[in-house]
Amino acid sequence: MSDVYIHIESLSKSFNGHDVLRGVDIDIDKGESIVIIGQSGTGKSVLLKHIVRLLEPDEGEVLFDGIHTAELKGRELAAFRRRIGMLFQSAALFDSLDVEENVGLGLKEAGQHRKDEIRQIVQDKLEMVGLADAAEKYPAELSGGMRKRVGLARAIATEPELLLYDEPTTGLDPITADLINDLIVDLNTKLNVTSIAVTHDMVSAYKIATRIIMLYDGKVQFDGTPDEIRATTDPVVKQFITGSSSGPIKVR
């Protein structure tokens, strides 16, 4: 296990007596692009929050680069989180800040760069997501796809080694969604990062994943490549990826 970058073992979490994760085991190597799929309420976002330690498990553990994340406190926890960038489902931009301020917020809070350095880093990241001319705009002036790209620029501004994506294409039209998918693939290559995305969008999953993991009933139902999941005979997995209303998965 020494070469495993992220090790998740027997991870369990419940809310108000409802079991969301029931003993999840996943190992992720450096450089992988993982996509986690599953019905709403199966714990995909809950799993992400455990990785970044926004939630504490009821049972089990998460190791990040050999570090037991549950043992981190104070400055060590802050330093650990700076190694991770996250694109939230809604982009989570601050309406009162312009694009430059939103993207540079994490850099400013870290206090390790001068103002002119932050401005240059922000401009570089905006160029990477195709928004070089948007620095002075406010979130209300942006389309949904542009807000996602600003959120992505903010996620990569601190040069993270792990990128987390929570439903990166939700609410976007198919063309804009494909643009976001292309950006994710491009940034994974250019930045040499490890990526974990949760999504319902199988078009996105097939495009960005080197490996797809499906959660069902609180556990890992499938773990394999896009080609392997396309060829699956598992009725649960097959029903989900084809979007069929008929099968063992019941509509909630």
What would you say this structure looks like, in words?
The protein has a six-stranded mixed sheet, with helices on both faces. A four-stranded antiparallel sheet has the order 2-1-4-5, covered by helices on one side. A hairpin with a 2-residue loop joins strand 4 (59-64) and strand 5. It has a domain at 92-148. Helices cover 37% and strands 24% of the residues. The protein is α/β, with parallel strands linked by helices and 252 residues long.
Helix and strand element order: EEEHEEHEHHHEHEHEEHH
User: Count of helical segments?
Assistant: 9
Structural class assignment: alpha/beta
Mean pLDDT: 92
Distance between the termini: 37 Å
Shape: globular
Low-confidence stretches: none
Number of strands: 10
**Order of strands in the sheet with most strands:** 6-7-8-3-9-10
Radius of gyration: 18 Å
In what range is the share of β-strand residues?
15-25%
> Helix fraction?
25-40%
Biggest sheet architecture:
6 strands, mixed
Topology of helices and strands:
Blueprint: E1 6-15, E2 18-28, E3 33-37, H1 44-51, E4 59-64, E5 67-68, H2 74-81, E6 84-87, H3 99-110, H4 115-128, H5 144-156, E7 162-166, H6 174-191, E8 194-198, H7 202-208, E9 211-216, E10 219-224, H8 226-230, H9 235-242
Any descriptors?
single chain, 252 residues, alpha/beta, 6-stranded mixed beta sheet, 4-stranded antiparallel beta sheet
